[in-house]
Design brief:
The complex is a heterodimer of chains A (658) and B (626).
Chain A: E1 3-7, E2 10-14, H1 20-26, E3 50-53, E4 57-60, E5 71-73, H2 77-92, H3 108-115, E6 139-141, H4 151-159, E7 165-168, E8 175-178, H5 194-198, E9 204-206, H6 210-219, E10 224-229, H7 237-240, H8 249-259, E11 263-266, H9 267-288, E12 294-295, H10 300-309, H11 323-339, E13 346-352, H12 356-361, E14 367-368, E15 371-372, E16 376-379, H13 380-389, H14 411-415, H15 421-435, E17 452-459, E18 462-470, H16 472-483, E19 491-495, H17 513-529, H18 539-549, H19 555-561, E20 576-579, E21 585-589, H20 592-596, H21 599-606, E22 612-616, E23 626-630, E24 633-637, H22 642-650
Parallel strand pairs in A: 1-5, 10-11, 10-13, 12-19, 13-16, 18-19, 21-22
Antiparallel strand pairs in A: 1-2, 3-4, 3-5, 6-9, 7-8, 14-15, 17-18, 20-22, 21-23, 23-24
Helix pairs in contact in A: 9-11, 9-15
Chain B: H1 5-21, E1 22-29, H2 32-36, H3 39-52, E2 69-75, E3 87-90, E4 95-96, H4 104-113, E5 123-124, E6 131-132, H5 139-142, H6 160-165, H7 170-176, H8 181-191, H9 203-211, E7 219-224, H10 233-240, H11 242-256, E8 260-266, H12 270-286, E9 301-307, H13 316-323, E10 347-351, H14 352-364, H15 366-370, E11 380-387, E12 393-398, H16 403-410, E13 420-425, E14 431-434, H17 444-449, E15 458-463, H18 468-482, H19 488-505, H20 511-527, H21 531-535, H22 538-546, H23 548-556, E16 571-573, H24 583-587, E17 593-594, E18 602-603, H25 613-617, E19 623-625
Parallel strand pairs in B: 1-2, 7-8, 7-10, 8-9, 11-15
Antiparallel strand pairs in B: 1-3, 3-4, 5-6, 11-12, 13-14, 13-15, 16-19, 17-18
Helix pairs in contact in B: 3-4, 7-11, 7-14, 8-9, 8-11, 10-11, 10-12, 11-14, 18-19, 19-20, 20-22
Classes of the chains: A alpha/beta (658), B alpha/beta (626).
Chain lengths: 658, 626
């Protein structure tokens, strides 16, 4: 469809734009929006983008397609009257503590209120302040700032396929709550922070409590404070200081030194470790033909997703810790000793594009002698805030280098910052190792912002099928194909966030497709400018492997650099007694997976017996059907065979069943 | 199983003959109102007593037995809910009102054994006091024209053969054996039938959009999510003549090329749902619904979806979302459901009453239908009479009848001698009509002109002791509760309007509030996403338009002219009338009344709680509200 429409008297051609909003913006006419996101389903909820169309009256420009000959006014008296009403009504219900708000300066509501000259509200302000949900290590929700645009609901449902957020209640009592109206930490939230990335007005922010802890550690003379910087922030942090999506690695290192960090390292270094360990793990699995396809495990959002929703795939996840945790383990277990300090006297901070890393760092598996391998995680945005607080003029900084003895960075490690990067690094490593390929090998298929990329690669006589996916909704689609046998792949790189880490939930606001693309482009630039491009070319890393573990990929590296995964309970909460009785106690799982497989029918069968029936939310045996616990043992049953199964395995002689 | 149109005709004749054998038929109203008042007990009792007399006729119309005797059956709503439980005798037309179980013995003794009349159970005209024997003589009934309600109250809703005996399923049979989909659409288009759910969009035109869409899958949805306070016509049709709705859905389905339909009924209508379910099962068993209807290759499946009682789910896109298992929130249109509706398939959503008109249109033709109503609004419309009206209930009248005729001639005027003040038409989306508008012919276009709408046809009648600000507040409270919360103008705007109205009724409003209220109302109308929000300000805007003085009295003089706003009431003792009996001072819980014995007392307004206890106790009528 194409044609011409007239906007404010200006005739504009349109072609494939799906809405008037896009046509207007292309022509340089801005229309304010709060609930619109070009990558999500259109809601038409905020009504801020209304325009007046001849013969159609007032319409939302986001949900109205252009039609040839349409005459549109985007700033008529009637239009602006409605927009001002929307803003005034929203502001009246919004906690207007702008000065202390995390989103101040990046808040669309604040901007529009200024743009439209909303000076004094004529409606009474919100009186009751609801408590904040600070349960999550990653995301803080402030219901008093929420304008119910629903972007978080949509991004979580559409991009991640999870749907942690949804609306509750009607009318002015409407609110957005985490699933089952429980604290976010108890939900299936994977901490990716994409909801933060789309929230227009500070209702969802990252949990920044770490900033104060980092300051305290820096000021503590007993602590050696060490920092590691992930690949993606170096291509995005400059946006916070008006530099755009350009490489600011040198300035970032310099700023961290000025803030007071004792050592500054590059997570890309640990990414090379990951590449080597994971590639060899992959090759080993290929030889043995087991646990394939291999799924990458660098992304803590994806790891939690697998633990929540695909416990059956946990053996397929690479056992490698993520680069952040490999580095943390290295620092606490080895480097601290080399410096002659106890692990608890070393304070490890990582600068990450990611809110899920905050959760990952607090996983109990990742500790050394009672102290976390990574003590604090700061997002890109939080790091920038810290620099401002420290009075650092970021743009004026001279470049600084990473510290010895882990100074070398390869392009391969930096690639981890964009979707496809891990896969490209693995392919480079394998090509170098098996085919003796030298220099930079660009793997074209892994690059680009598409959510699913699949290619076959010949490695010697073997043809490997590799998949790269970002966004968990797309991942779920891919998993369906793999699990149904429709598709055979050998390795899958999964990144929870659109575009990979460059689009992480901790990256600067305006975290949209355009910015993700620019950041990814910069990641590839950095790779091309660096001298080394393959993990095995990192000589510093060779020495470290040799010095600390006597080489790579051995029993010791496995102990320090690999991990295990655990199925997660879907719904927390106490057991419920479905039927009381004197007979033996039988517990039926009512969790999501078992529920789908018919746990209610099983309960109905059990009610026929004079037993005590209890329901629990997850017995953590999700892959295998309805889980029933009898005598401390978990069995997997169906409604048809539950009675026989219990009779066969109960082991008691109460005679109830017979 | 009926395999052809002939089979259907045969069954009709057989059922009709069986009914004709009954020398008398007694129909006990089993609409929700009458059931709540005990009509089912009346039914059981009558059946038992008549059986004891050996006079009970076989009810199963298709049984090859004699049907002689007296048939007793339940029926759908007769409409005159005020007078329920109602018991009607056929063929005489004798109608008994407010019948209780205890009356049954007398009814059987007098009216069946001795062919007489139980005088005390007859309807008596409230003005003349004269009793009326038959239904047709009652003013409530004799001015109505019943098309959709024609058989509501005359047939047993649970008996498909009763429906067939009264010409049921003939329309779909006619279509399947000789009409093409576009002919059906044309007939409906020509009939001038417009959507009875509120919008008044021409039904035939709506269908033609969906018919033009490529298949194969399309849906018909019957919107039975009647949510307007005071409206219950859809419920009555579903309860009283469920097969009529099914037949209407099949006609619509045939016209647009759909093979599946959903009935979206409120879960608060359990009886309607129960009867619709039975009707579907019976119709499928008989072969008039399901695969290969009446031996043709037309398939039609009907599902029932119970709505959880959200008013917004009457909005088409929210209703679709609800059927799909999503939260009932409207989506922006276009795409319209006719193009992309339920599960992204072309979908037509018609209101129960709209669908109930279809069989008669098909059988009698478009011209016949146009014979009722006005040129722009053909046919009849059901109205639910509620509020301070003498005869509450359900009526069906030709479009274009004046409000005066409906309220005074059919509705019997106001209760307890109250003076007419206004009528709220079309529920919370509609508007108020004043005394000057009493002679307005009720049709879609005339009402639109005065800022109201027919809506689903709820008529809430208000007398002179009703405060219009309070009324606007009531409806605003309703839409605020029922707003889905999605779009800002509706969610936040209705909240602020409600706050302002509350402020005004409490005497704390200012003229600035009034101006802001009006501005906000207009903006919410302009800016909202769906029909709910776009019409939510109507009660405010119409009351402001017609009763501005009343608003001004609240904000300027802090007075409620109707004396309804609690906070603005001021109790006053008329010293002329006060005898100084001291009883008021003694009952006053706040000690606000003082005065010496045999001397006029006074109320201290600062202490007065406005509980009204003094006024209740005063024997001399000396305490007044001013």
């Amino acid at each position: 469809m194409s044609g011409k429409i007239t906007i404010n008297g200006q005739v504009i051609d349109f072609t494939d734009e799906t809405n008037i909003l896009a046509v207007a913006r292309k022509a340089g006419i801005d229309i304010p929006t709060l609930c619109y996101h070009p990558e999500l389903i259109i809601a038409g909820a905020c009504r801020l983008c209304v325009v007046e169309i001849e013969r159609m009256g007032m319409q939302a420009s986001c949900s109205t397609a252009p039609a040839d000959g349409m005459v549109v006014y985007t700033n008529s008296e009637r239009v602006n009257r409605v927009r001002k009403m929307v803003l005034e009504l929203l502001l009246a219900n919004h906690d207007r503590e702008c000065t202390t708000c995390d989103s101040s300066g990046a808040c669309k509501l604040q901007k529009y209120a200024n743009d439209y000259g909303i000076k004094r509200l004529r409606y009474p302000s919100r009186t009751v302040m609801a408590p904040l949900d600070t349960s999550s290590l990653s995301v803080v929700r402030d219901p008093n700032k929420c304008i119910l645009c629903g972007l978080c609901v949509r991004v979580c449902k559409e991009k991640q396929g999870i749907g942690v957020w949804d609306f509750k209640n009607r009318g002015s009592r409407t609110e957005i709550v985490a699933a089952m109206d429980q604290p976010l930490a108890e939900s299936a939230c994977i901490n990716c922070g994409q909801c933060i990335a789309v929230c227009p007005c500070g209702a969802l922010t990252s949990n920044s409590s770490a900033i104060e802890e980092v300051w305290a550690a820096i000021r503590d003379p007993k602590k050696t404070v060490v920092c590691q910087i992930a690949p993606a922030p170096r291509a995005a942090l400059g946006e916070e200081f008006g530099l755009g999506s350009v490489d600011v690695t040198g300035k970032l290192v310099a700023a961290l030194r000025k803030v007071g960090f004792d050592k500054v390292f590059d997570t890309a270094f640990a990414a090379d470790m990951t590449t080597i360990e994971e590639s060899n793990e992959f090759l080993g699995r290929l030889v043995k033909g087991e646990n394939l396809p291999l799924f990458t495990s660098c992304c803590p959002g994806w790891v939690k997703y697998a633990e929540e929703f695909h416990p059956e795939l946990l053996n397929n996840l690479s056992t490698c810790r993520s680069p952040q945790q490999m580095f943390g383990s290295l620092l606490k277990k080895k480097y601290a000793k080399e410096l002659g300090i106890a692990p608890q006297d070393m304070y490890v901070v990582s600068i990450m594009p990611c809110t899920a890393k905050k959760y990952e760092a607090k996983r109990p598996e990742f500790m050394t002698e009672g102290s976390y391998d990574v003590d604090a995680v700061l997002t890109t945005v939080e790091a920038a805030r810290m620099f401002r607080e420290a009075g650092i003029l970021f743009n004026a900084l001279e470049n600084s280098e990473f510290d010895q003895p882990m100074q070398q960075t390869t392009g391969s490690g930096v690639l981890f910052g964009a979707t496809g990067g891990v896969m490209e690094s693995v392919v480079r490593y394998v090509a170098g190792k098996l085919l003796n390929a030298e220099g930079r090998i660009d793997v074209e298929f892994t690059r680009g912002m598409e959510d699913t990329k699949i290619a076959s690669i010949n490695v010697g006589d073997n043809k490997l099928s590799l998949a790269v996916v970002n966004g968990l909704a797309a991942t779920e689609e891919l998993l369906k194909k793999i699990q149904s046998g429709e598709m055979t792949v050998h390795a899958v790189e999964v990144m929870a966030c659109p575009g990979g880490c460059v689009g992480g939930g901790g990256q600067p606001y305006q975290n949209d497709g355009e910015h993700r693309k620019a950041r990814a482009k910069e990641i590839y630039n950095i790779d091309s400018k660096l001298v080394l491009h393959k993990a095995q070319d990192n000589e510093d890393l060779d020495k470290i492997f040799e010095k600390y573990w006597g080489g790579c990929c051995n029993h010791d590296t496995h102990h320090d650099l690999h991990t295990h995964y655990y199925p997660k309970k879907r719904v927390a909460g106490n057991e419920i007694v479905i039927k009381d009785g004197d007979g033996p106690e039988i517990t039926v799982c009512l969790g999501e997976s078992c529920f789908k497989k018919g746990s209610l029918a099983v309960v109905e069968k059990l009610l026929e017996l004079p037993v005590k029936v209890k329901g629990v939310f997850c017995l953590e045996s999700c892959g295998n059907g309805v889980s029933v616990k009898v005598n401390g043992q978990i069995q997997n049953v169906k409604a048809e065979n539950v009675l026989e199964a219990i009779k066969a395995n109960c082991g008691c002689s109460c005679g109830t069943c017979s | 199983m009926l395999k052809s149109r002939e089979d259907l005709v045969n069954l009709q004749q057989k059922s009709k003959a069986a009914l004709a054998e009954q020398k008398m038929r007694i129909l006990v109203c089993a609409g929700t109102g009458c059931v709540a008042n005990g009509s089912l007990k009346v039914y059981e009792s009558l059946k038992k007593l008549i059986a004891e007399q050996g006079l009970l006729a076989e009810v199963d119309l298709v049984k090859e037995v004699s049907h002689e005797g007296i048939g007793v059956s339940i029926s759908g709503c007769h409409g005159f809910c005020q007078m329920g439980p109602l018991v009607r005798f056929e063929p005489s037309g004798l109608l008994y009102c407010k019948v209780q179980e205890d009356d049954c013995a007398e009814i059987v003794e007098t009216s069946i054994v001795n062919n007489g009349v139980v005088e005390r159970l007859l309807y008596s005209d409230p003005t003349t006091g004269e009793t009326v024997k038959t239904q047709d003589e009652i003013p409530f009934y004799n001015r109505q024209v019943r098309v959709t309600l024609k058989n509501c109250g005359r047939i047993d809703p649970d008996d498909i053969n009763d429906y067939i005996a009264h010409g049921g399923y003939q329309a779909i049979a006619k279509i399947l054996t000789g009409m093409k989909p576009d002919e059906v659409i044309k007939e409906v288009l020509d009939s001038g039938l417009r959507g009875r759910g509120g919008g008044g969009f021409p039904t035939g035109r709506k269908w033609s959009f969906a018919a033009a869409q490529p298949g194969p899958k399309k849906y018909i949805i019957c919107n039975g999510d009647e949510g307007d306070p005071g409206a219950f016509m859809d419920r009555s049709v579903m309860e009283g003549n469920p097969h009529l709705v099914l037949e209407g859905m099949m006609i619509a389905g045939f016209a647009i090329g759909a093979d599946e339909g959903y009935i979206y009924a409120r879960a608060e209508y359990p009886l309607a749902i129960k009867r619709m379910r039975k009707a579907i099962a019976d119709a499928e068993a008989l072969g008039v619904l399901g695969k290969g209807v009446l031996g043709t290759d037309f398939n039609f499946k009907i599902n029932i979806k119970e709505g959880a009682g959200a008013f917004v789910c009457g909005e088409e896109t929210a209703l679709i979302a609800s059927i799909e298992g999503e939260r009932g929130m409207p989506r922006p249109r276009p795409p319209f459901p006719a193009v992309k509706g339920l599960w992204a398939c072309p979908t037509i959503i018609n209101n129960v009453e709209t669908l109930a008109n279809l069989p008669a249109i098909i059988m009698n033709g478009a011209a016949w239908f146009r014979g009722f109503g006005t040129p722009g609004s053909a046919g009849t419309k059901t109205f639910a009479l509620a509020g301070q009206i003498q005869n509450t209930g359900l009526v069906e009248v030709p479009m274009g009848m004046t409000l005066r005729e409906i309220v005074f001639d059919i509705g019997g005027g106001l209760r307890e001698g109250k003076k007419y003040k206004s009528v709220q038409i079309g529920g919370p989306s509609g508007g108020c009509l004043t005394e000057e508008k009493l002679d307005l012919p009720l049709d879609y276009d005339e009402l639109m002109k005065v800022g109201a709408m027919i809506g689903s046809g709820g008529l809430v009648v208000m007398g002179d002791d009703t405060c219009m600000v309070e009324t606007a507040k009531f409806f605003m409270g309703f839409v605020q509760n029922e707003s889905c919360g999605k779009c800002v103008p509706c969610r936040e705007g209705t909240k602020q309007m409600l706050a302002m109205l509350t402020k005004i009724t409490e005497g704390k409003g200012t003229e600035a509030d009034l101006a802001l209220l009006e501005e906000l109302a207009q903006n919410v109308k302009d800016g909202s996403l769906c029909g709910l929000g776009k019409t939510a300000p109507n009660p405010v805007l119409t009351t402001l338009r017609y009763f501005r003085d009343e608003y001004l009295a609240h904000v300027r003089d802090k007075k409620c002219p109707a004396g309804a706003c609690q906070a603005l009431k001021e109790y006053y003792i008329d010293p002329e009338k006060c005898k100084g009996c001291t009883i008021c001072a003694r009952v006053c819980p706040a000690g606000a009344i003082t005065g010496d014995k045999k001397q006029p007392h006074v109320i201290n307004v600062d202490l007065c709680l406005k509980c009204g206890a003094c006024m209740e106790k005063c024997k001399f009528g000396s305490i007044v509200i001013r």
